[in-house]
Amino acid sequence: MNEGFNRALSIFSPDGRIFQVEYAQLASERGSPVIFYSNGKTIAVAIEKRAESKHKVLSDLDKFKEVETGIYLTFAGIWPDSLIIIDKAVLIAREYAYRIGESIDILKLTLELSDYIQKYTITGGYRPFGVKVVLFGFHKGSSIISMIEPDGNYAMYKGGAIGTKSDKAVKELENITEEEPIIAVAKTLYNVAQKDANKMSLFQITPEIATILSQAEVSEIIDSFE
Question: What is this structure's pTM?
Protein backbone atom coordinates (compact mmCIF):
# COMPACT_ATOMS: atom_id res chain seq x y z
CA MET A 1 0.00 0.00 0.00
CA ASN A 2 2.81 2.42 0.82
CA GLU A 3 4.25 1.91 -2.67
CA GLY A 4 1.05 3.35 -4.09
CA PHE A 5 1.61 6.57 -2.16
CA ASN A 6 5.10 6.78 -3.64
CA ARG A 7 3.84 6.56 -7.22
CA ALA A 8 0.55 8.44 -7.21
CA LEU A 9 -0.02 12.18 -7.51
CA SER A 10 -3.71 11.92 -6.72
CA ILE A 11 -3.40 10.03 -3.43
CA PHE A 12 -2.32 11.45 -0.10
CA SER A 13 -0.42 9.28 2.34
CA PRO A 14 -2.11 8.68 5.73
CA ASP A 15 -0.15 11.59 7.22
CA GLY A 16 -1.18 14.00 4.44
CA ARG A 17 1.88 13.88 2.19
CA ILE A 18 2.32 13.50 -1.57
CA PHE A 19 5.63 11.76 -1.94
CA GLN A 20 6.19 12.59 -5.61
CA VAL A 21 6.09 16.29 -4.75
CA GLU A 22 8.58 15.73 -1.93
CA TYR A 23 10.88 13.83 -4.28
CA ALA A 24 10.70 16.75 -6.73
CA GLN A 25 11.69 19.08 -3.90
CA LEU A 26 14.72 16.92 -3.14
CA ALA A 27 15.71 16.93 -6.82
CA SER A 28 15.56 20.72 -6.89
CA GLU A 29 17.97 20.90 -3.97
CA ARG A 30 20.66 18.92 -5.80
CA GLY A 31 21.38 21.58 -8.42
CA SER A 32 24.35 23.94 -8.38
CA PRO A 33 24.01 26.76 -5.83
CA VAL A 34 22.43 30.10 -6.70
CA ILE A 35 22.67 32.98 -4.20
CA PHE A 36 20.64 36.19 -4.55
CA TYR A 37 20.14 39.39 -2.58
CA SER A 38 18.63 42.84 -3.10
CA ASN A 39 18.96 46.11 -1.24
CA GLY A 40 15.82 47.41 -2.96
CA LYS A 41 17.66 49.24 -5.73
CA THR A 42 19.95 46.54 -7.09
CA ILE A 43 19.58 42.76 -7.28
CA ALA A 44 22.74 40.64 -7.24
CA VAL A 45 22.97 36.98 -8.21
CA ALA A 46 25.87 34.55 -7.79
CA ILE A 47 25.78 31.19 -9.57
CA GLU A 48 28.24 28.33 -9.37
CA LYS A 49 29.24 27.08 -12.81
CA ARG A 50 29.31 23.32 -12.40
CA ALA A 51 30.09 20.65 -15.00
CA GLU A 52 29.99 16.86 -14.86
CA SER A 53 32.93 16.76 -17.28
CA LYS A 54 36.03 18.96 -17.37
CA HIS A 55 35.62 19.11 -21.14
CA LYS A 56 32.23 20.79 -20.97
CA VAL A 57 32.22 24.44 -22.05
CA LEU A 58 30.60 26.53 -19.31
CA SER A 59 28.64 29.69 -20.04
CA ASP A 60 27.60 32.50 -17.71
CA LEU A 61 24.14 32.34 -19.27
CA ASP A 62 23.51 28.62 -18.75
CA LYS A 63 21.37 29.32 -15.69
CA PHE A 64 20.41 32.96 -16.14
CA LYS A 65 17.75 33.76 -18.75
CA GLU A 66 15.81 36.87 -19.72
CA VAL A 67 12.25 35.60 -20.24
CA GLU A 68 10.75 39.06 -20.81
CA THR A 69 12.23 42.53 -21.03
CA GLY A 70 13.48 43.30 -17.53
CA ILE A 71 12.45 39.93 -16.05
CA TYR A 72 15.12 37.30 -15.44
CA LEU A 73 14.94 33.66 -14.38
CA THR A 74 17.32 31.25 -12.73
CA PHE A 75 16.79 27.76 -11.34
CA ALA A 76 18.21 24.77 -9.50
CA GLY A 77 17.38 21.15 -10.19
CA ILE A 78 16.83 18.91 -13.20
CA TRP A 79 18.13 20.64 -16.33
CA PRO A 80 15.57 19.31 -18.89
CA ASP A 81 12.73 20.30 -16.57
CA SER A 82 14.11 23.83 -16.42
CA LEU A 83 14.05 24.14 -20.22
CA ILE A 84 10.31 23.40 -20.25
CA ILE A 85 9.66 26.01 -17.57
CA ILE A 86 11.81 28.64 -19.29
CA ASP A 87 9.96 28.07 -22.57
CA LYS A 88 6.63 28.32 -20.74
CA ALA A 89 7.64 31.57 -19.04
CA VAL A 90 8.56 33.09 -22.41
CA LEU A 91 5.27 31.86 -23.91
CA ILE A 92 3.22 33.29 -21.04
CA ALA A 93 4.90 36.68 -21.53
CA ARG A 94 4.33 36.69 -25.29
CA GLU A 95 0.70 35.60 -25.05
CA TYR A 96 0.03 38.26 -22.42
CA ALA A 97 1.55 40.97 -24.62
CA TYR A 98 -0.58 39.77 -27.55
CA ARG A 99 -3.81 39.72 -25.53
CA ILE A 100 -3.35 42.85 -23.44
CA GLY A 101 -1.08 44.95 -25.63
CA GLU A 102 1.57 45.53 -22.97
CA SER A 103 4.39 43.63 -21.32
CA ILE A 104 3.57 41.36 -18.41
CA ASP A 105 4.94 42.42 -15.03
CA ILE A 106 6.90 40.11 -12.76
CA LEU A 107 4.03 39.64 -10.30
CA LYS A 108 1.61 38.42 -12.97
CA LEU A 109 4.28 36.21 -14.55
CA THR A 110 5.01 34.65 -11.16
CA LEU A 111 1.33 33.89 -10.62
CA GLU A 112 0.76 32.35 -14.05
CA LEU A 113 3.99 30.34 -14.00
CA SER A 114 3.25 29.01 -10.51
CA ASP A 115 -0.20 27.89 -11.70
CA TYR A 116 1.43 26.00 -14.56
CA ILE A 117 3.93 24.28 -12.26
CA GLN A 118 1.23 23.39 -9.74
CA LYS A 119 -0.84 21.60 -12.40
CA TYR A 120 1.95 19.06 -12.76
CA THR A 121 1.37 18.01 -9.14
CA ILE A 122 -2.28 17.02 -9.73
CA THR A 123 -2.42 15.79 -13.33
CA GLY A 124 -2.32 12.07 -14.06
CA GLY A 125 0.39 10.87 -16.41
CA TYR A 126 2.76 13.65 -15.37
CA ARG A 127 5.20 14.18 -12.55
CA PRO A 128 6.13 17.37 -10.68
CA PHE A 129 9.02 19.41 -12.04
CA GLY A 130 12.23 18.74 -10.14
CA VAL A 131 13.16 22.40 -10.31
CA LYS A 132 13.03 25.42 -8.06
CA VAL A 133 12.65 28.68 -10.00
CA VAL A 134 13.53 32.25 -9.05
CA LEU A 135 12.38 35.32 -10.99
CA PHE A 136 14.05 38.73 -10.70
CA GLY A 137 12.74 42.11 -11.78
CA PHE A 138 11.31 45.44 -10.73
CA HIS A 139 7.73 46.60 -10.19
CA LYS A 140 6.77 50.21 -9.56
CA GLY A 141 10.38 51.06 -8.77
CA SER A 142 10.95 48.30 -6.22
CA SER A 143 12.99 45.15 -6.69
CA ILE A 144 11.08 41.87 -6.78
CA ILE A 145 12.51 38.41 -6.16
CA SER A 146 9.95 35.61 -6.38
CA MET A 147 10.72 31.94 -5.75
CA ILE A 148 8.47 29.17 -7.09
CA GLU A 149 8.69 25.76 -5.42
CA PRO A 150 8.17 22.42 -7.25
CA ASP A 151 4.65 22.23 -5.77
CA GLY A 152 3.70 25.58 -7.33
CA ASN A 153 3.83 27.51 -4.09
CA TYR A 154 5.58 30.88 -4.37
CA ALA A 155 6.79 33.68 -2.13
CA MET A 156 8.70 36.95 -2.36
CA TYR A 157 12.18 37.33 -0.89
CA LYS A 158 14.77 40.00 -0.21
CA GLY A 159 17.53 37.42 -0.40
CA GLY A 160 18.07 33.69 -0.34
CA ALA A 161 19.55 30.66 -2.04
CA ILE A 162 18.55 27.57 -3.99
CA GLY A 163 20.39 24.41 -4.91
CA THR A 164 23.04 22.49 -3.01
CA LYS A 165 23.84 23.83 0.47
CA SER A 166 21.03 26.39 0.21
CA ASP A 167 20.20 26.20 3.93
CA LYS A 168 23.80 26.93 4.85
CA ALA A 169 23.97 29.70 2.25
CA VAL A 170 20.88 31.44 3.64
CA LYS A 171 22.38 31.48 7.15
CA GLU A 172 25.66 32.79 5.78
CA LEU A 173 23.91 35.50 3.76
CA GLU A 174 22.05 36.73 6.84
CA ASN A 175 25.39 37.57 8.47
CA ILE A 176 26.80 39.69 5.63
CA THR A 177 23.88 41.60 4.14
CA GLU A 178 25.37 44.91 5.27
CA GLU A 179 27.66 44.56 2.26
CA GLU A 180 26.82 45.74 -1.25
CA PRO A 181 24.56 43.09 -2.84
CA ILE A 182 27.18 41.88 -5.31
CA ILE A 183 29.75 41.48 -2.51
CA ALA A 184 27.22 39.75 -0.25
CA VAL A 185 26.27 37.07 -2.79
CA ALA A 186 29.84 36.53 -3.95
CA LYS A 187 31.12 36.16 -0.39
CA THR A 188 28.30 33.76 0.46
CA LEU A 189 29.05 31.53 -2.53
CA TYR A 190 32.77 31.73 -1.71
CA ASN A 191 32.28 30.74 1.93
CA VAL A 192 29.73 27.99 1.30
CA ALA A 193 30.40 26.27 -1.99
CA GLN A 194 33.00 27.59 -4.42
CA LYS A 195 36.32 29.42 -4.04
CA ASP A 196 37.40 29.30 -7.68
CA ALA A 197 36.50 32.56 -9.42
CA ASN A 198 36.57 30.79 -12.78
CA LYS A 199 33.61 28.67 -11.64
CA MET A 200 31.41 31.59 -10.62
CA SER A 201 29.04 33.85 -12.51
CA LEU A 202 28.01 37.18 -10.97
CA PHE A 203 25.12 39.34 -12.16
CA GLN A 204 23.81 42.77 -11.19
CA ILE A 205 20.25 43.75 -12.07
CA THR A 206 18.90 47.30 -12.03
CA PRO A 207 15.62 48.63 -13.43
CA GLU A 208 17.50 49.57 -16.60
CA ILE A 209 19.74 46.59 -17.31
CA ALA A 210 21.22 43.28 -16.16
CA THR A 211 25.01 43.16 -16.20
CA ILE A 212 27.26 40.11 -16.27
CA LEU A 213 30.50 40.80 -14.46
CA SER A 214 33.62 40.01 -16.46
CA GLN A 215 35.95 37.26 -15.33
CA ALA A 216 38.48 39.89 -14.29
CA GLU A 217 35.87 41.64 -12.14
CA VAL A 218 34.81 38.35 -10.54
CA SER A 219 38.44 37.46 -9.79
CA GLU A 220 39.06 40.87 -8.24
CA ILE A 221 36.10 40.44 -5.89
CA ILE A 222 37.08 36.89 -4.91
CA ASP A 223 40.72 37.88 -4.36
CA SER A 224 39.55 40.45 -1.80
CA PHE A 225 38.18 37.62 0.36
CA GLU A 226 41.50 35.79 0.60
Answer: 0.90
